[in-house]
UniProtKB/TrEMBL annotation:
Record PROSITE patterns: ADH_ZINC
Protein name, per record: Sorbitol dehydrogenase
One example of a Gene Ontology biological process annotation: sorbitol catabolic process
InterPro entries: ADH-like_C, ADH-like_N, ADH_Zn_CS, ER, GroES-like_sf, NAD(P)-bd_dom_sf, SDH-like
Domain of life: Eukaryota
Length: 358
């Protein structure tokens, strides 16, 4: 094992570096429930790029150098003595959020809401875009032989889709509107169809992304033009479906899109807010209130990795087409620039120079 641990480190806003001498994380596992992983595939998320470009997301501010990356998979190279369910050589997907304490949110199964949770690549916690990484074994999930490392890394965004569809109550026969056909909108589409949605409409400004959505199973694609008003778009959605959708999943965070989501959803339905935009937004709240349209937030996910692995292993969900670009870890800055420019769908970094396969 090399003496260094090549890592992608954000030093400050706009200052992204590939650092080769960060200390390895493979020390003193004895007596712990941690595992050391040789990282294999790590996807670049919009939040990684946002931290790079802006140095913060909301109240989370980069104040010291931070390793990026949280969509990840790897191979176990060392286990702590308390670890019973994993062994050296196991291929695993990593859930990046680990509760630090057994608080009320942990106890009631909503540990993603714990205010003290550790989360990869959210200040001040380091992420896992590096060659070697230490993580809680309880939040590493063994991958079946027919699930690739890249699919394992994509479980993180897929989990956002699972959590959003659960929050929205997607079930057999549901009609669903998804606002935004970026990576998160596309995984919401995949999950909604797998959970039994009968018809899904997806919107976006980009015809290329809508083409991908059609290939992934969207029943209707609606190209948004900047001059379209929210109520006009809502009418277009209703015309496509023949009725207003039961559930709308908003994945852009754009104020006008949130307005469209509320106007579009049928009375008694649900709007799920996934996308994060401005702290304050003007929305037709009274319209939602008098029609009993529930508005539900989403913050990451919880208890999703087992379902995601089952979906992938069974073939019910296929996330492979989402990966459009691959780079070796040594070309991380180029990979981040590709993501920043909005090229393709998902950019994947390959951290093991001896194994660049998916």
């Amino acid at each position: 094992m090399a003496q260094g641990n090549l890592s992608v480190v954000l030093h400050a806003q706009g200052d992204l570096r590939l650092v080769g001498d960060r200390p390895q994380t493979c020390y003193l596992l004895h007596g712990t429930i941690k595992v050391l992983l040789q990282m294999h595939s790590v996807g670049i998320c919009g939040s990684d790029v946002h931290y790079w470009q802006h140095g913060r997301i909301g109240d989370f501010v980069v104040t010291k150098p931070m390793v990026l990356g949280h969509e990840a998979s790897g191979r176990v190279v060392k286990v702590g003595s308390a670890v019973k369910h994993l062994k050296e050589g196991d291929r695993v997907a990593i859930e990046p959020g680990v509760p630090r304490e057994m608080d009320e949110f942990f106890k009631n199964g909503r540990y993603n809401l714990s205010p003290t949770i550790f989360f990869c690549a959210t200040p001040p916690d380091d992420g896992n875009l590096c060659q070697y990484y230490k993580h809680s074994a309880n939040f590493c999930y063994k991958l079946p032989d027919n699930v690739t490392f890249e699919e394992g890394a994509l479980i993180e965004p897929l989990s956002v889709g699972i959590h959003a569809c659960r929050r929205g109550g997607v079930t057999l026969g549901s009609t669903v509107l998804i606002c935004g056909a970026g990576p998160i909108g596309l995984v919401c589409l995949l999950v909604a169809k797998a959970m039994g949605a009968s018809q899904v409409v997806i919107t976006d400004l980009s015809t290329e992304r809508l083409t991908m959505a059609k290939e992934l199973g969207a029943d209707f694609q609606l190209t948004v033009k900047r001059e379209n008003g929210p109520q006009q778009l809502a009418k277009s959605v209703e015309d496509m479906l023949g009725a207003q959708p039961h559930i709308t999943i908003e994945c852009t965070g754009v104020e006008s899109s949130i307005q469209t989501a509320i106007y579009s959803t049928r009375s008694g339905g649900v709007v799920v807010l996934v996308g994060l935009g401005s702290e304050m937004a003007t929305v037709p709240l009274i319209n939602a209130a008098v029609r009993e349209v529930d508005i539900r937030g989403v913050f990451r996910y919880c208890n999703t990795w087992p379902m995601a692995i089952a979906m992938l292993a069974s073939g019910k969900v296929n996330v492979k087409p989402l990966v459009t670009h691959r780079f070796p870890l040594e070309q991380a800055v180029q990979a981040f620039e590709t993501t920043r420019q909005g090229l393709g769908i998902k950019v994947m970094l390959k951290c093991d120079k001896n194994d660049q396969k998916p």
